[in-house]
Amino acid sequence: MIEFFFDCSSPWTYLAFHNIQPLAKELGAEISWRPILVGGIFNTVNPSVYAQRETPVPLKARYMKKDLQDWARSADLAIKMPPTMFPVNSVKVMRGCIWLGKEMVPFATAVFEAYWGEDKDISQDAVLAEICKKVGVDEQKFFAGISDQAIKDKLKANTEEVVARGGFGSPTIFLDKTDMYFGNDRLPLIREALMRSKASAA
């Protein structure tokens, strides 16, 4: 079982979300998608992210932009960094993922593509309505669903859970509950761990 804690407002999460699906399919691993609010994590345990945004190290920032584009090219994805609206309020999107449950993957994929590929502001209701239409979700039910208190509480609980388990950002990925990995570039290590697990079970 792969647990994938994610927020669509992160470019590295867009890459990992895209890349982990064929990996899991190849190795016969099930993915449990766990929507979170990464801002809630930063506020709780990782406020240094905000300081880095306010006073970036120019050389490091320039390299990180190149690094992101290299990874995007490798995944055959288009990423604009930074988008026009950055950071973006992703609370409605992530509540939507919670509300959709097992049907969230097409929606989350369309959100990632709209924000990172097409530079659309995913905090806006009009953009979310457009995404709902694209993936066949009833927009009126969607907006009613994301205002439900149980959905809000579940998103908050997921965010608190990943922090309690040692997470500090998005994506945070767990294998077998306790084996934690952070970021898109850890996927080769996840592959090795899954292959070890398969070999020991054989």
Please tag this protein with its features.
alpha+beta; single chain; four-stranded mixed beta sheet; 10 helices
Describe the protein's topology.
Elements: E1 2-6, H1 11-27, E2 31-35, H2 38-45, H3 48-54, H4 58-75, H5 91-100, H6 104-117, H7 125-135, H8 139-145, H9 149-164, E3 172-175, E4 179-182, H10 187-201
Parallel strand pairs: 1-2
Antiparallel strand pairs: 1-3, 3-4
Descriptive overview:
By secondary structure, this protein is an alpha+beta fold. It contains ten helices and four strands. The protein has helices spanning 11-27, 38-45, 48-54, 58-75, 91-100, 104-117, 125-135, 139-145, 149-164, 187-201; strands at residues 2-6, 31-35, 172-175, 179-182. It has a four-stranded mixed beta sheet with strand order 2-1-3-4, sandwiched between helices. Helix 1 packs parallel to helix 4 (58-75), helix 5 runs antiparallel to helix 6 and helix 6 (104-117) crosses helix 7 (125-135). The longest helix is centred in the first third of the chain and has 18 residues, at 58-75. The two termini are 16 Å apart. The mean pLDDT is 95.
Q: Would you summarize the structure shown here?
A:
The protein is an alpha+beta fold and 202 residues long. The protein has helices at residues 11-27, 38-45, 48-54, 58-75, 91-100, 104-117, 125-135, 139-145, 149-164, 187-201; strands at residues 2-6, 31-35, 172-175, 179-182.
Low-confidence parts: none
Strand content range:
5-15%
Give the overall form. globular
Task: Please state the CA-atom Rg, rounded to the nearest Å.
Answer: 17 Å
Main sheet: strands, sense, barrel: 4 strands, mixed
SSE topology string: EHEHHHHHHHHEEH
- Helix fraction by DSSP (H/I, runs of at least 4): 55-70%
Q: Helix/strand/pairing class, anyone?
A: alpha+beta
